[in-house]
């Protein structure tokens, strides 16, 4: 698997340090709240959320949503299908949405409005990576790990054709590993 990687963009160590920093900040900001629900967006956010919540020193609830855009070609339409909804009640709770990456912003923009309609006490967004150059809709990020340039990244939850999520760092694939149709070069 490592032989498919051209370059490591963010190391395991850099991720670890960032998790501690984000966890401490979130702990400070939510210390007076006793009804915090941390929501992970499957599947990309799984590694990030699992590591991040260990640095949140509060008795938060944990839940997951799975979403899919309606076919690759209509991703830009912003229509998102809910594959798995939350198990937990949202009303009156402080919701912290956790994502691995914000690209166009369409997934989060949809999730945000959907959760907002369920009358939470507040909603904030935490993302490990942000690619602002690709944004199609405005998203206000409350907790950010790293801003990255417009490169196709894998690892630490992020996939290429569902693979490479298990890499412990964020990296870039060698061009020969990427199918010609997916290759920007
Ligand atoms: C990726 C990523 C974000 C979303 C960001 O998920 O994990 O959830 O796309 O893109 P956007 O800002 O343009 O909406 P994907 O749909 O690939 O599903 P996955 O998490 O299961 O890989
Ligand atoms: Mn995702
Ligand atoms: Mg994906």
TrEMBL record:
Catalytically driven reaction(s): IMP + diphosphate = hypoxanthine + 5-phospho-alpha-D-ribose 1-diphosphate; GMP + diphosphate = guanine + 5-phospho-alpha-D-ribose 1-diphosphate
Sequence ranges assigned to domain Phosphoribosyltransferase in this UniProt record: 13-160
Subcellular location: Cytoplasm
Cofactor: Mg(2+)
GO BP term (any one): purine ribonucleoside salvage
UniProt family annotation: Belongs to the purine/pyrimidine phosphoribosyltransferase family.
Name of the protein in its database record: Hypoxanthine phosphoribosyltransferase
